[in-house]
Amino acid sequence: MRAPMSWLREHTDLPTDATPEHVQEVLVRVGLEEEAIHRTDLVGPLVVGEVVSAEPEPQKNGKTIQWCQVRVGAEHGADDTDLRGIVCGASNFAAGDKVVVALAGAVLPGGFEIAARKTYGHVSDGMICSERELGLGDDHSGIIVLSRLGLGDAPVGADAIALLGLDDIAVEVNVNPDRGYCFSLRGIAREYALSAGGRFVDPVDPEVVVPPADDGNGFAVRLADDEPLRGTPGCERYVARTVRGFDPSAPTPPWMRRVLRLCGMRPISLAVDVTNYVMLATGQPLHAFDLDLLGDVIVVRRARSGERLTTLDDVERVLDPQDLLITDESATGSRVIALAGVMGGASSEVSSSTRNLLVESAHFDPITVARTARRHKLPTEAARRYERGVDTDLADRAAELAVRLLTELGGGDGGVGVSDVDERRARPALLMPVDLPRRLVGVDYTHEQVVQALEAVGCTVAQARVAGVDASDSTLDELQVHVPSWRPDLTQGADLVEEVARVQGYDRIPSVLPQAPAGRGLTRSQRLRRSAARSLAERGLVEVLTYPFTSTDRFDQLGLAAQDPRRHALRLANPLSEQEPLLRTCLLATLPEAVRRNLSRGVRDVALFEIGRVFRPAGEPGVAPQPGGGRRPDDAVLARLDAGVPAQPWRAAVLLAGQREPAGWWGPGRAADWADAVAAVQGLAEALGVPTLQVSADRHDPWHPGRCARLELADGTLVGHAGELAPAVIAALDLPERACAAEIDLDVLVAAVPEVIQAVPVPTHPVALRDVALLVDDDVPAARVEQALREGGGSLVEQVWLFDDYRGEQAGPGKRSLAYRLVLRAPDRTLTGEEAAAVTEAAVASAAGATGAVLRDH
């Protein structure tokens, strides 16, 4: 919310020399966050000029320009004359009009510098300005004629910057959702006076702005909300005032236009500008209808099935039964004329021919308005205020202020025709223990300080006794607090304590750090997950964290079958984005976004990993109970809470694209392939202390059917998959060709880590190396052959390394050759050649018996 400095000076004791930085500092002390300072970027000289002559001169291009002689005052004249010759393309002025002239050296908004220059056969010594050129509006078709703004008496040569209020500065603050009353100049001025001290002049002081009572002659209004939300009616008060004989051509005065612009709103017409100004000044949204376009009675009700409304933005909207509407009824039926608290309809819009107005000032339910605004994607200025809470006592006074301005500036009669349908319920007083501020804040506030702070924010405070206690015990006293009508956010004692704390000063609250208890360190699973992340990082991968939100489109891009359990995802009740309403069921649903973001920034070689949770519901999601506070839930409630939460296993995923080894003087480099993804998982398992994973071929989306590895524990438990992504998946995700990935269930791997890992002595004896080449059937997994070699060789086999996998003519049809290097070592001696040969023969025999392997002899 923006607040012009000039407006604050009118309504508070803001010093004339106060800076906007000072205002922000004062407002910060009472909890309003500073946002920005808005100044004009216009530089003078900008002066009032009087047109002496304006000679039209047709041009060859069909355009007619005006060659003008303009008086700008002796102090701004040239060559001993106060006349300047200026070329102007507009024609909405004549000799004798006073205009705004930018002289040479001026800089207009947008950095447009003014200088004397030759154009259309003349030297134009300045510019006669339009609204758009000065940043006052969007109109650039005609220049500003000061008499039409009520400024015709301004002396020639006067400073037009000050005259038009272009030197004013607006301070912008960020308004928290619970401080809706600060969404008005009235609220910000009240907070400034509260923080800095001094007077506050209420623009709708009830002793000055005295609205007339319902005179029985007003427009008929009926509140008919038959289906209120939460038992709260959508409209508790509706004030309707009529203004007849209004002049629609009457201009908006400069001071009002200035306030609207400084507050970030565009002046439109007097009727609309007055309602906007009153809303900015008071926080009470208003709406003006063309009275002659309305039916016989206004009815405030919920929408009916099939109803539609074309709003002021010319969009036809299908209405929801929860939408609160303003309708009019007549003999011909009922018609929707506005979305209550959000936007009016086009059918009753005020236009340039409107002579009679109906001004609406109402109090609508915040939740109803908020839901309607979000449902129709209409975050209007009125909706922003209603959804944060509007002063419940302000509707009649705001309407009266608007009627006074409309009749004063646009003529007409607003003294008769008053409707005020008031169904508000009394708001009960709040009870707060006297010592509650001390207990919650930790500051020894006195009774007087608490009462003074609450009265400073507009509360009425009385002291009450707690029933059934000793009258001599003053610590058990309670304060009976009636909160002001503009503070609907104050609903409990803790809210009142917050007001005491901010009024007495946040700087009084001591900064006391709690004593940190002795920690128990990380859990075993946390330590292992950190070891897993460290292992992947040591292999050159970069850890990322992605948002766990996805969509069914991503499952389609991953090529998941319709029956794939990973498609069974939880839908969020209130997603951050409607494009991603689901919780991920696998990390590869979100990790590609991080890769694509890096690619879009020019990083071509990417190696990323993520460790995070996925959400795997089993069947339909259960409904978790809402246990009450104050005590620990019992085991049955805790069990129901667990049952209502889906399984959230930890996963680890890797995604590689581009070069795995960069090119350089040392060689051409190497692209990442499926083996890198497999090796990353194997290295992770080794770092955790898990025995070697078994690797076998598999078919599993989204991997390439011929380059997908299945990773299992020794007992056959599935750990995950790794390999090259399918080409269709790569194309759908817009990833580089041959991108590779791996995803494993980290919980399974962590559970397989032995509780005690036996340390192995550092070997001191040399190794014996033996290479064997085995012919096996093409469908025999290399991991199964490796396992058989290890089992046959026994404890003397330290390592088995596959260094060649050959398929070809020499291997024979349906066969492949697997070449392994056996690393043999004894812990207590150097192996003899005979011993090494015996171990090798036993290993080959074991592989032959387990897989049908035959020793290759050529």
Report on the structure:
There is one protein chain. With 858 residues, the chain is an alpha+beta fold. The protein folds into six domains: 2-39 and 169-196, Phenylalanyl-tRNA Synthetase, Chain B, domain 1, CATH 3.30.56.10; 46-163, OB fold (Dihydrolipoamide Acetyltransferase, E2P) (Beta Barrel); 220-422, Phenylalanyl-trna Synthetase, Chain B, domain 3 (Phenylalanyl-tRNA Synthetase, Chain B, domain 3), CATH 3.50.40.10; 430-506, Phenylalanyl-tRNA Synthetase, Chain B, domain 1, CATH 3.30.56; 524-624 and 635-751, 2-Layer Sandwich (BirA Bifunctional Protein, domain 2); 768-855, Alpha-Beta Plaits, CATH 3.30.70. Helix content is 25%, strand content 25%. The protein is built from 21 helices and 41 strands. The strands form twelve sheets. A seven-stranded mixed beta sheet has the order 27-30-31-37-36-35-34, with helices on both faces. The chain has a five-stranded antiparallel beta sheet with strand order 5-4-3-6-11, with no helix packed on it. The protein has a five-stranded mixed beta sheet with strand order 13-16-19-20-21. The longest helix is centred in the last third of the chain and has 19 residues, at 833-851.
SSE map:
Layout: E1 2-4, H1 5-11, H2 20-28, E2 33-38, E3 46-58, E4 64-71, E5 83-88, E6 98-102, E7 107-108, E8 112-113, E9 117-119, E10 122-124, E11 127-128, H3 160-163, E12 170-174, H4 185-196, E13 220-223, E14 235-243, H5 254-262, H6 270-282, E15 286-290, E16 297-302, E17 308-310, E18 316-318, E19 324-330, E20 333-339, E21 343-344, E22 357-364, H7 366-375, H8 381-388, H9 395-410, E23 418-422, E24 430-433, H10 436-441, H11 447-456, E25 460-464, E26 478-482, H12 493-504, H13 524-538, E27 542-543, E28 549-550, H14 552-557, E29 582-583, H15 591-600, E30 606-613, H16 635-643, E31 650-657, E32 659-661, E33 670-671, H17 674-688, E34 694-697, E35 703-712, E36 718-725, H18 727-733, E37 740-745, H19 746-751, E38 768-777, H20 782-793, E39 797-806, E40 815-824, H21 833-851, E41 854-855
